[in-house]
Amino acid sequence: MIEEILQQIGLTEGEIKVYLSLLELGSTSTGKIIKKSHVSGSKVYEVLDRLSSKGLVTSVVKNGVKYFEATTPEKILSYLRQKKEDIQKQEQRVQEIIPKLILKTKEANANNVKVFTGFEGLKTANEDIINSLQKGEEWLSMGLTEQPASWERYFTKRQIIRTKKGIIHRQLLNEKYQILYKKRKKLALTYFRFLPQNLEMPTSTEIYKNKTLIFILNSEDPMAILIESKAVADSFRKYFEMLWKQAKK
Questions:
Q1: Domains, the chain, ordered by start
Q2: For 215, which of 15, 24, 67, 186 is 20 to 30 Å away at the CA?
């Protein structure tokens, strides 16, 4: 139970073994840490350095010998708060570079970028996702704080079609958007995790196949930008997976 939770928040197996050993041992030298944790001597210093950078371990030199000690378990909350701040910064940076990514794709091959306007355009773009994917394939979504209720009803109905087709959908949703979560959480092959409330955005980024689709959900002037590029899709997919591991369940 403890090990599983620590792994979920980003600690490696070696870090967990060393940290739990230090909690039991108190201030001690590496010899006892190695014996207790079963982490090899060649790796224990590297693991201790990583735990120290996370604020979970401190050290002091006594009579020429370096001793290590686990910080109070409450420090784990500080570590999580720092990770949350890092996610927010990363999200903001990606939002800043999206126009540049789109521009680069246009420069490389104008035929690989399509722009859809108006609500009918959003519907067309959404259909491309459902039509492109087959049973067992995955659709990734991130962002989205809110959208007009009529749009929400329409896209939820299309989600039902998606489940019947057997397409898996994982979505990183702003945690304040509970209405959408409650409507869709019981749909088959549907998985949610949550981004912090202060990361509000009127956009949703969809990654599927070799395509990246960016919905700009402004009720007055909605737009969707479809980028067909494996390199761009792979980049967004990596970013999604990083956020997915860190996001709240």
A1: 2-73 (1.10.10.10), 84-246 (3.30.870.10)
A2: 186
